[in-house]
From TrEMBL:
GO BP: alternative respiration
Protein name: Ubiquinol oxidase
Catalytic activity: 2 a ubiquinol + O2 = 2 a ubiquinone + 2 H2O
InterPro entries: AOX, AOX_sf
Annotated cofactor note: Binds 2 iron ions per subunit.
Keywords: Electron transport, Iron, Membrane, Metal-binding, Mitochondrion, Mitochondrion inner membrane, Oxidoreductase, Respiratory chain, Transit peptide, Transmembrane, Transmembrane helix, Transport
High-level lineage: Eukaryota, Viridiplantae, Streptophyta, Embryophyta, Tracheophyta
CDD domains per the UniProt record, alphabetical: AOX (cd01053)
Primary location class: mitochondrion
Length: 339
């Protein structure tokens, strides 16, 4: 069976009685196995044109016979550790759970993202670019963001690990809100979005992966978690209303938020270089997500995260400029894959 969607191709071969009955000789013995063994072959390939090519391919062969529509799924975030028996879940629907392996043959242990969603960050991006506020809305957006930074500086001081954690819980909201509202608009108007729905949701997912990374570095205290609940609840609703009222204002606010994020991560790097923050080994999830070398450190992670924020800055200021010129986002192709 062959299924194809976009640039992803999935090929699955099942050794059912009907299939094996049509194979004879070496072909049946060599490829499909013998007896009642069941082989499942899955081939994935996906490529992008942004920041070079991103390719990931895996071949998975499972020879364990499935009974009574049971599927084996790994518990937690990935593979079962230490040879622990995997949990079996009764599945009436028969949805297949593909086992994915990395290029070196080791098992892929992340269920929250896949190898073809990884990339290498573009560190050459200009970090000093700034949109000078000239109109009333621009000045309102700029000073709104500046006022939000003051309580953050007071609360976190120089605890940049916890500051990054809080920052990412907020930074992941605009892309999701914008993508959701554009999605509904596209449905109401029966029109394409120009790729902006995907681009904004991609931005939200990228910011969420920043949070998943820093959760491994900074362990938040209970009151910091409570603060996240409060800030996210207020910010989500405020940004939702702002986007409904004026998308160009909402995107400009996000652009200035990303500029502040760049500044915060630059300060984070300074503290690492001074030795005030221990430059520990990079979390495994960061190494796989950004395709970093195995010996990468926290400093390397902060570098790629800062580069991502610079790309989000450009995208949102660009989106705001489109609206300022009297156009809609769908009138200009979205920078999909532009992290």
């Amino acid at each position: 069976m062959i299924m194809s969607r976009g640039t992803t191709t999935v090929v699955r071969l099942f050794s059912t009685a009907a299939v094996t009955g049509s194979l004879t000789g070496p072909m049946r013995t060599g490829f499909m196995g013998t007896g009642s063994e069941k082989a499942v072959a899955t081939w994935w390939m996906k490529s992008y044109s942004v920041v070079g090519a991103r390719n990931a391919s895996t071949i998975t062969l499972g020879d364990k016979e499935q009974h009574d529509n049971k599927e084996t799924v790994a518990s937690g975030g990935g593979a079962a550790a230490g040879g622990e028996k995997e949990k079996e879940v009764v599945s009436y629907w028969g949805v297949p759970q593909s086992k994915v392996v990395k290029e070196d043959g080791t098992q892929w242990k992340w269920n929250c993202f896949r190898p073809w969603e990884t990339y290498q960050a573009d560190l050459s991006i200009d970090l000093k670019k700034h949109h000078v506020p000239k109109t009333f809305l621009d000045k309102f957006a700029y000073w709104t963001v500046k006022s939000l930074r003051l309580p953050t500086d007071i609360f976190f001081q120089r605890r940049y690990g916890c500051r990054a954690m809080m920052l990412e819980t907020v930074a992941a909201v605009p892309g999701m809100v914008g993508g959701m509202l554009l999605h509904c608009k596209s449905l109401r108007r029966f029109e394409h979005s120009g790729g902006w729905i995907k681009a904004l949701l991609e931005e939200a997912e990228n910011e969420r992966m920043h949070l998943m990374t820093f959760m491994e570095v900074a362990k938040p205290k209970w009151y910091e978690r409570a603060l996240v609940f409060t800030v996210q609840g207020i910010f989500f609703n405020a940004y939702f209303l702002a986007y409904l009222a004026s998308p160009k204002l909402a995107h400009r606010i996000t652009g200035y938020l990303e500029e502040e994020a760049i500044h915060s991560y630059t300060e984070f790097l300074k503290e690492l270089d001074k030795g005030n923050i221990e430059n520990v080994k990079a979390p495994a999830i960061a190494i796989d997500y950004w395709r970093l070398p195995a010996d990468s450190t926290l400093r390397d992670v902060v570098m790629v995260v800062r580069a991502d924020e610079a790309h989000h800055r450009d995208v949102n200021h660009f989106a705001s400029d489109i609206h300022y010129q009297g156009l809609e986002l769908k009138d200009s192709p979205a920078p999909i894959g532009y992290h």
